[in-house]
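Rather than argue in generalities, we reproduce a single protein record, letters for residues, whole numbers for local backbone shapes, just as it appears below:
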Amino acid sequence: MSGSVPRTLADPTTILCENLTYSYPGAAEPALSEVSFEIPAGEYVGVVGPNGGGKSTLVRLLNGLLAADSGSVRITGLDPATEPFEVRRLVGVLFQNPDNGLVAPFVEDDVAFGLENLGVKRAEMRARVLEAIAAVGLAGYERREPHTLSGGEKQRVALAGLLAVRPEVLLLDEPTAMLDAEGRREVLGRVRELAGSRTVLHVTHHLEELFDADRILVLNGGRLAADTTPVELFSDADLLRENRLVLPTVPRLAAELGLPFCRTPEELAAAARRSRDGVEAR
């Protein structure tokens, strides 16, 4: 849980948003309104909220795809809107549909794509491609054709392409939205392994994907409704209801049974046994 992962970043990478406001042309209300938060280096932060809350808009502002109407965004002191190329050397974005990010005939070529754009030398490129493919658990897939892979494997190839560039910040915009249960497990397992060695901002509709997050930001109606820990969010019925968030099954069952917060069925079973043993002892 929060604070349990050793921080290994060499540089003080930080995401800083101050009074960030953005409106789409013709929209009656801003997509984001006066949003402020700071993410220290190496922190794993989730972003949740109802549809239209501003989550994807935030990702696009952080990556320089949009420019704020007012307020500011800084990635290690850089402005994504005015210094997009410098920021994109530091930031990697993983979107919902893995097919949209696959552009080459073979896995190794896809993973090398970003390095080619950066002009990395051939020998170094080869080493970084192999390292990144191994990091996502796909060693041996170098000459596989992306269209033959499962959804989870495709998304891991896309993640490898980001890792090869060695970004300090990973922005994950609902990366499991189009995956089946097995694909979700594959991708989330790799994300958890990266937590602590990268700054991670993870947008999702699935609260159970954020059990291991350091913090969770709740966006609703373009405003920051909460900046809290997973345990505090999952224990706050009013906050969940006000922001139309669905409590994951295991924590919900634990709450209904009057047990402490539990993440997994195993934790729930153990808590239930302790509770039963305590009652019997009395």
